[in-house]
Amino acid sequence: MSMPVPIRLNLRMRLRHALPLMALAFGMGLLSLPAAALAEPLKIRFAHVVAQDTPKGLAVERFKTLVAERSGGRMVVEVYAGSSVYGDLDEMQALQAGAVEMLAPSLSKFGRVGFPEFELFDLPYLFDTLQDVHRITDGPLGARLLKSLERQGMVGLGFLDNGFKHMSANRPLLRPADFSGLRMRVQTSRVIAAQMRALGAVPVQLPFGATRQALARQVVQGTENPLSNFWTQGMHRVQSDLTLTGHAYLGYAVVTGQRFWRSLSPGDQRLLREALNDALRYGNQIADSQNSKALVSLRQAGTTAVHEPSAAQRQLLRDTVQTVHQQLGQRIGPQWIQDAHAALHRP
Ligand code: LMR
């Protein structure tokens, strides 16, 4: 006589059989679970344009981890990095339309959407160090800038550093004459465009995600960026020379939409703010070392010659772009500039 074969279902099979039955039972109202157990996690889509191995990329990853941990999985940050879903041309609209919940555009990109005061951060040689920048971003002036974003239905949640920008091309850029007639890719800031014109170059506005290819095809011949962006975008493969000018700052504002923010409970707003503040603190701590690491990698790659301007060359570059401060003062707003100087303890 044959023995009945015991039916042993492994865990996955058991779940496969159990789940439809449970779903049926819930549907018939025979079973109930706490609402939280059934609810889908709250998805927070965070888009940005840079690579992961940059100060911004790493800070956003840290934010994602902290939110998952602290909400016990109730909230999930989904990161769209490297302009993969939205880039410079459409990310602000995507935020307004509710297609993403968070962004961290560079401060230079807020002028185009109605906040020319943010372009004060682009003024060449305004800051000597990141500590100088923090006198603004950590103080009342920074708070006012973030608050001003409410005008366009945004909530400004914080600032993040990348670092100081340097100039690249297929030639060294040590003196103003070296810039003559060069088409230089710039962000949408009018201050940056004026800076390039003051140097004798032709500014060409292009999205970040299109820059490397535009350099490769000679649509533009040079650009400016901090080292971490230069390296992670592979610009060292399409630019033979990098000049360490450190002429201006690049940083970010993290923003969300008012409609999304108001839909959250005060507790969830607090959780997100605290997680973001911790992530931004981390990002600011590693910004310098990420840029230094990129310089080491660049030198090792050996494809791009790295130039250091002499003190006299630095001074001439600085004097040449000084006019931009007066030229663009009206656009930025004289009061904002005056307040920035006061925060920097400058006359
Ligand atoms: C750029 O467009 O050059 C930068 O703003 C990219 C970034 O987000 O760092």
Essential attributes:
D-Maltodextrin-Binding Protein, domain 2; single chain; 9-stranded mixed beta sheet
Protein described:
It is a single chain. By secondary structure, the protein is an alpha/beta fold. The protein has one domain (32-343): Bacterial extracellular solute-binding protein, family 7 (D-Maltodextrin-Binding Protein, domain 2, 3-Layer(aba) Sandwich). It has 15 helices and 9 strands. It has helices spanning 11-27, 35-38, 55-70, 91-96, 130-137, 140-148, 190-198, 211-216, 227-232, 258-262, 266-301, 311-321, 323-327, 329-332, 334-343; strands at 42-47, 75-80, 102-103, 154-169, 183-186, 202-205, 222-225, 241-257, 305-307. Strands 1, 2, 3, 4, 5, 6, 7, 8 and 9 form a 9-stranded mixed beta sheet that branches. Helix 3 (55-70) runs antiparallel to helix 11. Bound molecules: (2S)-2-hydroxybutanedioic acid. (2S)-2-hydroxybutanedioic acid (LMR) binds at residues 49-50, 106, 162, 187, 208, 225, 229, 250.
Write the layout of secondary structure elements.
Elements: H1 11-27, H2 35-38, E1 42-47, H3 55-70, E2 75-80, H4 91-96, E3 102-103, H5 130-137, H6 140-148, E4 154-169, E5 183-186, H7 190-198, E6 202-205, H8 211-216, E7 222-225, H9 227-232, E8 241-257, H10 258-262, H11 266-301, E9 305-307, H12 311-321, H13 323-327, H14 329-332, H15 334-343
Parallel strand pairs: 1-2, 1-3, 5-6, 5-7, 8-9
Antiparallel strand pairs: 3-8, 4-7, 4-8
Helix pairs in contact: 3-11
Bound molecules: (2S)-2-hydroxybutanedioic acid.
CATH superfamily membership, which one? Bacterial extracellular solute-binding protein, family 7
Number of helices: 15
N-C termini distance:
103 Å
Strand content: 15-25%
